[in-house]
């Protein structure tokens, strides 16, 4: 089931898009918004797996909104302007649908989204080039991920047994696409935590089960833009 949320500054466009969605099997519109700020305040707590965003909006455009959406949610852009296509795909969105939207074209976009969502739900490992070559890493063995201090393009994966493996040339956006969204969360610009490694969760900090210095446990800072999504994951 695709559970989608719509954001468009035009109420008529929202009504039309909802009408199309209702005609497509296994698609549910959870909520619709015409204000990007309200959308961003609520999106982290909504039970949805896909966001349909208009690009051309006042105050904040769809590209800016997309950068602040939790990585667990897929994105389809809608717009009447073709010049945004390159920027849209740089954000690794599912699809870019030109207005006026036709049902057949929207069905194709949903099929792409459904395939990606299905892959993410089933996959329990990631496969990537690392410091020890092409490597398969089972996600239930991962404790923590951070940006490499040697090269920010690389990511250090710390396994639960303390082993560190370096993923080569991989950004957080793509990495989160590979990880099961129910088990991992980005907590700031440079770190991702496995939820199974969280010992204590507060407003600004996570205390993990990962051994740190001086016989204590590793503490991680929670970035402001990630706080609401984390609170939702922990039912707060």
TrEMBL record:
InterPro entries in UniProt: CheY-like_superfamily (IPR011006), LytTR_DNA-bd_dom (IPR007492), Sig_transdc_resp-reg_receiver (IPR001789), WalR-like (IPR039420)
Top-rank taxon, per record: Bacteria
Entry keyword annotation includes DNA-binding: yes
Location of 4-aspartylphosphate modifications: 54
DNA-binding as UniProt keyword: yes
Pfam family, one: Response_reg
Stretch forming the signal peptide: none
Keywords, sorted A to Z: DNA-binding, Phosphoprotein
Gene3D superfamilies per record: 3.40.50.2300, LytTr DNA-binding domain
SUPFAM superfamilies membership: CheY-like (SSF52172)
Record domain Response regulatory: where: 3-114
Protein name: Response regulator
